[in-house]
Amino acid sequence: MKLITAIIQPDRLDHVREALIQADITRITVSRVTGHGRQEDIEFYRGQKIAPNLIPKIRLDIAVNDEFVDITVDTIIKSATHDSGEIGDGKIFITSLEECIRIRTRERGGKAI
Question: Tens digit of pLDDT for each residue in 41-79?
Fold first, then answer.
């Protein structure tokens, strides 16, 4: 089992969500977050460099069984990328899940996902 975390631009959320549904991946968690990466804007105020502004982003968390990892990642990449391949299109992180438990039924492991 894996946890796929994707940070994408807000305007791509509908495209990604629709593409995931078409790929039969329907269980996702969406959060609004802020941050910055390589697209940081270095600003000067009264001659001093100040920290870059935080930029609104969307965070998707998707728990999948191992056989769905590549499908999920490929779907996110295809649907989250802007046509021009801009800096700031996002990142995808894949981490191992030790356990998943469905609270209602107490199922564990891949069945709970």
Answer: 566 667 776 666 788 999 999 999 999 999 999 999 999
Q: Are 43 and 49 in contact (CB under 8 A)?
A: yes
Residues in a beta bridge with 95? 3
Backbone angles phi, psi at 35, to 5 degrees: 175, -175
The CATH number of residue 33's host domain is 3.30.70.120
Domain count, the chain: 1
Q: What is the pTM of this model?
A: 0.84
Give the residue from 64, 44, 61 showing the smallest Cα distance to 52.
Answer: 44
DSSP E strands in 36-71: the ranges are 43-45, 48-50, 55-64
Nearest to 54 by CA among 73, 71, 32: 32
Question: In 15-33, which positions are buried (b, 16+ CB within 10 angstroms) versus exposed (e)?
Answer: ebbebbeebebeebeeeee
